[in-house]
Amino acid sequence: MRLFCEARKAATRAAVSAAVVGALSATAFAQSAPEANYPSRPIRMIAPSSAGGPVDVIARSVSHGIGEVLGQQVVVDNRAGAAGLIGSETVATASPDGYTLLFGFSGPLVIVPHLGGKTPYNTLKDFAPVTLAAQAPYVLLVHPSLPVVSVKELVALAKSRPGKLNFGSGGNGTGIHLAGELLKLTAGINIVHVPYKGAGPGQTALLANEVDMLFNGLAPALPHIKSGKLKALAVGGAKRSPLLPETPTIAESGLDFNTTGWYGILAPRATPRAIVLKLQGATAMAINAPALKESLTRQAFEGVASSPEDFGKLIREEWVKWERVIKAAGLKGQAG
Q1: I need a surface site. Which of 120, 160, 183, 212 has the fewest CB within 10 A?
Q2: Strand bridging mode 260-268 / 100-105
Q3: How far is 291 from 61, CA to CA, in rounded Å?
């Protein structure tokens, strides 16, 4: 009987010890895996641009939608400066806990790093891609006085007048500048770059017939296309825009050309996979909500969610493409 009692006491002590160990293990897991309760406080979304610009506008629309899905506020924090490097570095060096995110775009991620100078982060190593969020097609615009109605005619005219035609841009190293350089490279034409201090002044110059052509975002160009003040020859993306369904893509003219403005969400490297996937899922739900989808369309953006892997692949492809274009154009040290 005494042996039985001792055995029962030993079993009880073992059960208590197991319960204590289990409780401690659960506590340790909760502490080591904060993603289980993520998000438990507001999230900061860094927009590496000034307030009121296209990056800021789209960042606020998407962030609001993500916040509604997650049940936590997603606050946009504008960190402009150094062509987007300052805001991007803020995220690259932030704690990888999912509470500091980047609303990134091509400029500071895959263009500026190739223009010379020291970049304070490595795009391909210091971020965890979460998802693509939106795309905005570039459109190739010409002044109505230019005697062309297609990309093929434009290329033929440029080849007949080497060095005589020019194209405006929003400044050296901007996305719309490099779209022009990509056209030069793929079409084998000699057209002269004329940089302006922003896409707005560049488009104003085209309206005044100071330059022959310009790539620009569809949103600011659309009113002038509809009024006939500018001609849209083609869009730069892989498919036609629903806002300009009759306007072909540049690729339809036979050129190997595909470039569009893109925006996506990135987290610091080493952010837990569970947090990345939760953010990706929330973004996809937000973008597919009818109200946000309609809002983006009105602003000439297309909401496009992707897997983290597909977004990472896009970034790597863009990195290689713009490195090639910048090298071919001899643009080292010409940002801004």
Answers
A1: 160
A2: antiparallel
A3: 10
d(CA 210, CA 169): 12
Question: Above 60 in pLDDT, residue 67?
Answer: yes
Residues 83 and 187 in one domain: no
Instruction: Please tell me the distance from the alpha carbon of residue 61 to that of residue 285, in angstroms, as a whole number.
Output: 13
Residue 220, pLDDT > 70, answer yes
Place of tokens 């990472």: 312
Segment holding 16, helix H or strand E: helix 2-32
Which domain-ending residue is among 205, 231, 253? 253
Residue 138 near residue 260, CB atoms below 8 Å = yes
Q: What is the C-alpha end-to-end distance of the chain, expressed in Å?
A: 90
Q: Which of 27-36, 144-153, 182-191, 251-260 has the lowest mean pLDDT?
A: 27-36
Does one domain contain both 147 and 202? yes
Q: Which amino acid is at 54?
A: P
127-142/302-303 β-pairing: antiparallel
For residue 136, count CB atoms less than 10 angstroms from its CB and return exposed for 0-12, middle for 13-18, buried for 19 or more: buried
User: Sign of torsion, CA 204 208 211 217?
Assistant: positive
Tokens describing residue 319 = 């990195």
- Cα(268)–Cα(121) distance, rounded to whole angstroms? 11
* pTM of structure: 0.84
Place of tokens 């154009």: 329
Query: Distances in Å between the alpha carbon of 228 and those of 167, 201, 207, 225?
Result: 19, 19, 10, 5
Claim to verify: residue 128 and residue 141 sit in the same structural domain: no
Task: Output the furthest CA–CA distance in the chain (Å, rounded).
Answer: 110
